[in-house]
Amino acid sequence: MLKRLKDKEEKIDQIIAALIDESAKGVPIIVEGKKDKEALCSLGVEGLVLTAKTGGKAFLDVVLEIERVGAREVILLLDFDRRGREGTKRLKQDFERIRVKPNLVFWRELAGLVSRDIQCVESLNAYLANLKLKTEQT
Predict the structure, then answer these.
(1) Of 1, 10, 94, 132, which has the fewest beta carbons less than 10 angstroms from its beta carbon?
(2) 3-state secondary structure at position 130
(3) pTM
């Protein structure tokens, strides 16, 4: 069990490191809310992170914002619950329509690792901290 937890921790760390790299290259990241954005920032993501559901913002507003900055690719990292899955699917279609490549790799990989335990991106920090504690204690 300990090996499995350590493997999971390593995989999550690798995904976050790759996310930080992509963000540093200028690829915008879209999350649901302000707390999700704050969680990514505290994990070291320093690039453009846009929220899709704050201040009465509609998905169309986010699509227009990405179009305005001229990005050719965008990372979708909405929550792992039903609403997040639906929002990801809708934004994916919206971005494909305007010929912006929606990157779902990070979302799929993280969802595969953590969706049984957490439902939202904002919980990623606490989840990772608990995982590190568990692997250090044994």
Answers:
(1) 1
(2) helix
(3) 0.92
> What distance in Å separates the CA atoms of residue 16 and residue 42, rounded to the nearest whole number?
11
DSSP 45-62: --S-EEESSSTT--HHHH
Nearest C-alpha neighbor of 37 from the set 23, 21, 49, 19: 49
State residue 135's pLDDT score.
85
> For the chain, what are the domain ranges?
2-137
Q: Per CATH, the architecture of 2-137 is what? A: 3-Layer(aba) Sandwich (3.40)
Quick one: what percent of the chain has pLDDT higher than 90? 83
Q: What whole-number distance in Å separates Cα of residue 135 and Cα of residue 70?
A: 43
> Could you report the per-residue pLDDT of 34-64, keeping only the tens digit for each?
999 999 999 999 999 999 977 677 888 999 9
- C-alpha to C-alpha distance for 68 and 70, rounded to whole angstroms: 5
Which residue has tokens 């954005």?
Answer: 37
Q: Which residue reads 């976050």 in tokens?
A: 16
DSSP state of 5: H
The answer for residues whose C-beta is within 8 angstroms of residue 124's C-beta and 6 or more apart is 12, 39, 43, 110, 114, 118
Q: Is the pLDDT of residue 116 over 80?
A: yes
